[in-house]
Target: Flavin reductase like domain-containing protein
Amino acid sequence: MREIDPTTLTQRDNYKLLIGSVIPRPVAIVTTLSEAGVLNIAPFSFFSIVSSDPAMLSIAVQRKNGQAKDTARNLLATNEAVIHILDKENVVAANHTAAQLPPETSELDASGFTTVPSSTVAVPGLKEAKVRFETKLYQHIPIEAGSQADLLLLQVTAYHINEDIYQDGKIDPEGLQAVSRLAGNTYASIGEMFDIKRPDD
Model:
C-alpha cells in the first residue's frame, strides 16, 4: 500500500487522486440567474445529499484564480438555484454547458436545453431533466485554503419528477438512467444492481 501526503502534491495531483478514487459521483446540472438576469447552466460532480429533514443538497464550486465562478457568484447574489440530475438523455447537452463562457453569455443556446418556469424560485428549470430540485441557499461555507472553493448547502423547496419514473413514492433507477462521473472524460451509467439486507432490518 502506498502512502502519499496530500500536502506534498499539487492541486492538480490531489484532484486526480480524488476524482479517480471517489467514484462513481452523481452529477448535478445547476441553473442560476445572475443579477442581470442571465441564465447560467453548469454541471458539477462535487455534489451530494446532505440531509433529508430538512431536504438538503450540496455543491462545491472550485474558484478560478481565487475568483468565484458564475454559479457560486449567482447563488450568493440571489440565494436560488435549480439542481437537475444528469441522465443518459441529457448528458450530451449538459457537456456543452461546461464550455468557458463569459458571465454575460448563457449556455442555453449552446446546450439545446429548454427552460420551464419554477414554482418556488425565480430560476427556471430544464425541461429535459427527469428530476429537478428547486432550492434556496441555506448556508455558504467558503473554503479559503489552497486554490479555494465555495461549499453551498441548498434546501429543497420543490421536487419535479417525471411521472414515468415515479412509483409509489420512489424513483425507478432504471427509468431515471442517471449518469455518474468517473475520472477524466469518462462517465458511467447504472450497472449491475444487487441487494444486501441490513443487520437491523
The radius of gyration is 17 Å. The chain has one domain: 25-180.
